[in-house]
Amino acid sequence: MARPFEISVPDAQLHRLQQRLITATFPDELDDAEWDMGVPLEEMKKLVTYWRDTFNWRQKEQELNERLNQFLVPITVTGFGGLDVHCLHHTSRNPNAIPLLFIHGCRPD
């Protein structure tokens, strides 16, 4: 039976993330790499600065929990045993909408 779920990242994990953002080091930029070799260094630095100085995870966590109907559904998978599958339920305003199923994986810890 499905049971309600809310996102709740432990404070210790957010603290570890903040420490990693504070101590992040970057490699030298490759000449003319652009996006061909991944995210350009300057873009990555902007992202790290934003996450370190501006982004508020607790605010986003609250918004997600308020906006999304989230559930954990227990299933049994041969070779793995019991697993909880994270599900969102959202009903479309369009009566002819095609149902969608998005499946994702993540570490349980």
From TrEMBL:
The keyword Signal is annotated on this UniProt entry: no
A Pfam family the protein falls into: EHN
GO biological process entries: epoxide metabolic process
One Gene Ontology MF term: epoxide hydrolase activity
Keywords: Aromatic hydrocarbons catabolism, Hydrolase
Keyword Hydrolase assigned: yes
Domain Epoxide hydrolase N-terminal, residue spans: 3-105
Domain of life of the native organism: Eukaryota
Annotated signal peptide: none
Family per similarity comment: Belongs to the peptidase S33 family.
Protein's UniProt name: Unnamed protein product
Lineage summary: Eukaryota, Fungi, Dikarya, Ascomycota, Pezizomycotina
